[in-house]
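Much of our argument rests on the idea that a fold can be written as discrete symbols. The amino acid sequence and the backbone structure tokens for this protein are reproduced below:

___
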Amino acid sequence: MSKSVPAFLQEEVSGSVMSIYSGDFGNVDVKGHVQFAIDYVEQLKEFHIFVSQCKDLAIADVKKQHSDPYVKTYLLPEKYKLGKRKTSVRKKTLNPVYNEILRYKIDKALVKTQRLNLSVWHNDTFGRNSFLGEVELDLGTWDWNDKLNKQMNWFPLKPRTPAAALELENRGEIKLALQYIPQPVGGNKTPSTGEVHIWVKECNDLPLLRGNKLNSFVKCTILPDTSRKSRQKTRAVAKTTNPVFNHTMVYDGFRADDLKEACVELTVWDHNKLANHFLGGIRIGLGTGKSYGTAVDWMDSTLDETTLWERMMSSPNTWVEDTLPLRMLMVAKLTK
């Protein structure tokens, strides 16, 4: 039985997408080691990475002769579905000590299909984080029963290959809040439909594509509606990789059932006179791969993105907030 098209939709459901890409990682010569251990905790159904310390890291800030390192992890190829984890930043040291556990809620069978990518980065005040080296472990061939593998081990940091750089590019993150209001007060709107409010607060650690210039803004579309009149955007904020927008967007005509079929696409762009350059984006929905019974490419939300949407659906008239990593998107094409 086919589902009816919602009030907020002006165009047909569409899976049409286009691809956009670019990035930068600094030019520090990789050296040093990282000490960590991994384990799967059956009782919690969690994969744990215990990050102990690094030693003899490369100098990222040549003027000050130090680095401000932190450690970041991904599970590949499920990078976007499972998200990244990272330690705190240690200031002004080439031998940072962390003693932190990075956790993934994941079935062991899925862990065995992944590669662990653990990388070390220098945290730059202006957002130009420098890559300091990485380690990759194939979890499919890992001996989980070997007690030695559960102990702390030192691993040499290695440079990143161009192909890996493309796969693991850092695009920064976006802080936002969502609210669903089933029955808005006032106005002439149909009482059976509600509003979705999207509060774009700020972005952090945006990539710099044009030297040290950045003039960023955020676009919003609620798919499957790709009509131009459905697109809203913030003002542009210049000269910072950590822009604060505090901009709220309101979309009406939503029944509760429409929330299961819709997806909020937020994309961040660098604006200049000639063209806008894509920096990264998120898609907040249930990530089912379908909308109103039609298979669509854009219903591809990550676990964290889906969790935020589910929280909004289960808590009407309440703001729910999160900070989500920006990712490469196949951006939905606009229709007229």
Remarks:
- The chain has a mean pLDDT of 83.
